Amino acid sequence: xxxxxxxxxxxxxxxxxxxxxxxxxxxxxxxxxxxxxxxxxxxxxxxxxxxxxxxxxxxxxxxxxxxxxxxxxxxxxxxxxxxxxxxxxxxxxxxxxxxxxxxxxxxxxxxxxxxxxxxxxxxxxxxxxxxxxxxxxxxxxxxxxxxxxxxxxxxxxxxxxxxxxxxxxxxxxxxxxxxxxxxxxxxxxxxxxxxxxxxxxxxxxxxxxxxxxxxxxxxxxxxxxxxxxxxxxxxxxxxxxxxxxxxxxxxxxxxxxxxxxxxxxxxxxxxxxxxxxxxxxxxxxxxxxxxxxx
DNA sequence: CTTCTTGTTACTGA
DNA sequence: ATCAGTAACAAGAA
Length: 294
Description:
Elements: H1 4-18, E1 23-28, E2 34-35, H2 38-45, E3 50-56, E4 59-64, E5 69-74, E6 79-84, H3 101-105, E7 115-121, E8 126-131, E9 137-142, H4 143-151, H5 164-171, H6 178-183, H7 193-202, H8 216-235, E10 277-281, E11 284-288
Parallel strand pairs: 2-9
Antiparallel strand pairs: 1-7, 3-4, 4-5, 5-9, 6-8, 7-8, 10-11
The chain binds a DNA duplex (14 and 14 nucleotides) through loops.
């Protein structure tokens, strides 16, 4: 699922590909993907261009060249943003291909049965917004609404504000467990289920520990591990567990580096004694080693 | 058939 | 206020 490292990989990939290109057409194949006024969306996008692409947590923010407007894009669980240089796609008037054994098999044919939105650029290239589960969205906002959205997020792991002092503040006076705090986007931006488990494992902290029981050293370990795990995952272009692909349609390689997630029943790679356990913590499937995560 | 999967929000009750 | 738990959203896999 796209978490910070995956969304950052997509942002990075799109930066060099779509910024500055004139959008000549937009095809809305699933109208519900657009939050708010659909007409406003189409009028704004057409004959405009993306001037820059930002990210906070798992949220992408496209700045338009004309008009002081922004497009927020959230991939939720199965969203994909795939850019394709060529292809035999006629600009405008896209229709979904029929669902046949052929199209179903080739998930990477574009557009496919999960394509919800297509931006067509003047040079003939296209940006496909696919989403199997239909939870992903785009939303046009002004500067004020953009700032409000950003303000709702906690400290961003790749920013200057991600310091040990600020990280400690997040845990102060709380009673929630570690997993719940790591997943809370209003406290720390961008961590999802996979990396929450990996961070707890790396820090040797059991995810169901109440944060008010953590020692200063344990909080520091979680801080160091958060930064380390997220940067490693970005280096590997994210984790493809199921649907995630980057802006070029390529899978991430970080799945080979996961140490606990999806390893239920396997022997712990670190202590080689414990068997990875999976239980429900903070309402999420959580994998951890009881032997070496205290 | 049932159960599980995950990001986020909304709602309940403690 | 804070927290835990759960339903909802939707479409799949197992």
